[in-house]
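ok trying again, last paste got cut off:
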Amino acid sequence: MRASARASTGPGSRGGRGAGSRGGRGAGSRANAGKRRLFDYPRSGKTGIRRWLPSWRLVLGSVLAVGALGFGVVAAAYLTTQIPKPDDFAKAQTTTVYYSDSKTVMGTFGVKRELIKIADLPDHVGNAVVASEDRTFWKNSGVSFTGIGRALLNNVRGGRQQGGSTITQQYAERYYLGTTTSYTGKFKEALLALKIDQQQDKKQILENYLNTIYFGRDSYGIEAAAKAYFGVSAKNLTVSQSALLAGIIPSPNNWDPRKDPAEAKIRWQRVLDYMVLGGTLTQAESAAQVFPKTIEYARRDTYGGPTGYILDAVRREITTRTAISEEELDVQGFKIVTTINPATQQAAVAAAATMPKDAPRTCGRRSSRSTRPTARSWRCMAAPTTSSARATP
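nice, full thing came through this time. structure:
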């Protein structure tokens, strides 16, 4: 009986212990598996350096997460970007003062710029600028991502800093933002360019760009530049003249033919070559072009000489007797016609030149804008102390 009892209880006992042991270990393993971490790093179940090397799943997930976050930020920035009002300076035009014949120019006030419609320009003017500054202008979305990438890579390598800007980006910068140089500013510029390209016609963008860009010789816009370099209206620019103006846009003061004729010619030829590549000029037409001659240029002295006294008097009369302010006079492009007869004025100047050296000085104080002495020589007697003028927009 005792032997039988031991026999009957032995296997059951071992079975119970075995089952309980195996069941406990299995349940523990399943419990541990259920507690896996969201990011398995350092990696469990790995030893040595492999424990600290992230898995491809973690790397891919991280890249996708950062990419999605970046895309969200850019999308939000784009959606909240509004096209602002144009920068005041971008809209500024030259105020021109005429003699009584309404044709002979006496002088100007303010920034040197005259707006012109793109419809009034020959096609080769716009074609030359597009060939030089942004050959994908008619097709791109306002931003050249390849250009930005190329410029960024060059800047990182320590090369000469580049902007990678399209015509639309340059237009956005100069017409709305003012000059931008930081990466944050360039980012904002790119977003605005994308927005502008969606809302404005390409021809309108090019027109505003041509009226805004600086060409050197104190000239803003293609009309002022045409007069400063060639003495003609932009309506009458030739292919060769257009290519020169387009070529020097990146650095007009340095590449002006009067300062660096060799570099100016290289830039001129470059534009002609790109016009051929773009299909807006044939090879034969390009080969027939001759490097254009430019006129002499001297920085203006608005208030110098006898005419300067008249201009000063005109300015004071306009700003004191009308509702036009000093600032408005400099930026709103008024046409001012005086009562001064050019022939009579020239005769007065000639007569003054024959007066003896000991003739009395009759000039009064000049405006604070003048850097010349307040007491002038007798030659200033040729300029009247008062004038009458009318200003029209």
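cool. Residues 38-80 form one domain. Residues 1-31, 363-387 have pLDDT under 50 and may be disordered.
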